[in-house]
């Protein structure tokens, strides 16, 4: 396999294996009728990445309820009236040849914060009550969430299904659930953040129950469309033998077991960390070993991100079967046409729009 070989998921043909991951733009309306809805910034951002040649373009973390937004400026899809704005994004992505996907999320205890360039601080009086599996704050800078009741949990499951249904109505052709980076589903998975003693906590079965139920509900809402999960392979405690509150957190072994048991998931986007502050040795391709181990031990289709910053590096990941897909996010923020540039470097015959042929690097 090579980076620019096509891949098929549930009958959906995707033109290559270089995909755009969901990266929050923090640019949606914060109140009124435009609360959580995409605007011209989002249309331009996603259209240009599709035109730039990515195989699949994933719209950023989109909350399934207003209280699930990371910040007041995050997307939210929870009402029929939101659909037209999202439909325009799905249409422009598809128009330029990429498969339109969307990531659905609930931020849980990491909600109600400011935008990153202002420090991601707690909003205080201008914010809202956050929710979590247990009343444990992410850190001393953020308030403790309210421990979710059984009714809260059932409502969130329904919200994920409702948002997925609306996303399909808007024209998205793949749905990704965010179970990583310390947001609500990850909070339930990890024993560091979930210390419940009911059916939603405790052992592996209890802590994974929310994800299982969300998957069941979402599958019922979307039918036979591809269903992805973004998963933090580890909380990074086990790698450093660092015990927190009597646990090493969520581990790679947990991830492997989960992937084996959830055979209705079509694709796993492998990342790591985010549930607690931990030592993470960030460097070129630092998450590739997790993706390869999960792929090798489960046979699942996986994608990987994490400082994969040049064409040769990305192509080797796919050629060596360390992952089936490479996600490139940060580099693509300043180069929307990254796939086309990398294709030229790899001597791949990727068609350019006629309007842009005069600007090709080899012309």
UniProtKB/TrEMBL annotation:
<keyword id="KW-0521">NADP</keyword>
<dbReference type="GO" id="GO:0050661">
    <property type="term" value="F:NADP binding"/>
</dbReference>
<protein>
    <submittedName>
        <fullName>NADH:flavin oxidoreductase/NADH oxidase</fullName>
    </submittedName>
</protein>
<dbReference type="InterPro" id="IPR013785">
    <property type="entry name" value="Aldolase_TIM"/>
</dbReference>
<dbReference type="GO" id="GO:0003959">
    <property type="term" value="F:NADPH dehydrogenase activity"/>
</dbReference>
<keyword id="KW-0288">FMN</keyword>
<dbReference type="Pfam" id="PF00724">
    <property type="entry name" value="Oxidored_FMN"/>
</dbReference>
<dbReference type="InterPro" id="IPR001155">
    <property type="entry name" value="OxRdtase_FMN_N"/>
</dbReference>
<keyword id="KW-0560">Oxidoreductase</keyword>
<keyword id="KW-0285">Flavoprotein</keyword>
<dbReference type="GO" id="GO:0010181">
    <property type="term" value="F:FMN binding"/>
</dbReference>
<dbReference type="InterPro" id="IPR044152">
    <property type="entry name" value="YqjM-like"/>
</dbReference>
<feature type="domain" description="NADH:flavin oxidoreductase/NADH oxidase N-terminal">
    <location>
        <begin position="3"/>
        <end position="347"/>
    </location>
</feature>
